[in-house]
Amino acid sequence: MNQNRSLLVIYTGGTIGMVQDSETGSLMPFNFENLYEYIPVLKNFNYTIDFFVFDSLIDSSNVNPEFWIKLAGVIETKYEDYDGFVVLHGTDTMSFSASMLSFMLENLNKPVIFTGSQLPLGVIRTDGRDNFINAVEIAAAYQNDTPIVPEVCIFFDNKLFRGNRTTKFNSENFKAFLSGNYPLLAEVGVKIKYHKEYIQKPNFKKLKVYKNIDRDVALLKLYPGISKQLVQAVLHTEGIKALVLETFGSGNAPTDVWFIEAIEQAIQNGIIVFVVTQCKGGSVEIGKYETSRDLGRIGVISGYDITTEAAITKIMFLLGNINSKENIRELLQTSLRGEITV
Which of 41, 170, 194, 304 is the most exposed place for a label (fewest CB within 10 A)? Predict the structure, then answer.
């Protein structure tokens, strides 16, 4: 067991930090000063655990770029003071936040473990207790004074995922998250089994935190019968700089002339079109089928096996920090934080 590690737990909001008021029966935010009363086993770790609670707790449905900048700023400010970080976050947008933080925190050499729960911490059958305990242990896990998991992760239901590879796929099951295109980083049973061959290695460079995020990105999910008017409306949104296009299967899209011409015109007008798949597993392969050849011809960018969550946050990050569109196009097809298999 790791001894004398110091951890910072950052509570941003979400289900895990709620308890039931004994008088009214309603849910209210948890007072983390009483954490050891709810989870006394934490004392056995012999870690120093400090807490940072956001002034204004938010439901994860209200997550936005300002929230990400604030969260990254907390980690930046406290980075040298702690061995690892646990971020308590609502599950609905946890994959978006974990993806964005992975891009914002360049040269991250300490664990940043997101976790949450489907049931509040104060509920008897809560999954939050185990999620929290295991996230703390993983954030403090060092070997030869080197962190075992020096990257942004999500821990949920006895599984450790690379954060930017995840999608929330179930709203009421404790198995809430899926990583369709990348193996688990660790599994928790009687012991924690780390799959070190899949975990990024520390580079021991100085942490660099990026705080520019450009939200001028649109998401268009294709479906049978999608109308020309809707496609045109999205592509003509004022200020749009990039489009994440959720296609069928391995990158397939309608071959209607109006559709291809609309996307081609958008690209000619300077809009970056980044193609991802609607499938929870698998990869975009432009040109594999006839229904994707036209997209390749007009200059869309393949997202390969990136998730929609990582695709959106990656473009927001790149648009905010890279001036050259040619460089952005190149970086979209480059693995920056293990988010894509090229």
Answer: 41
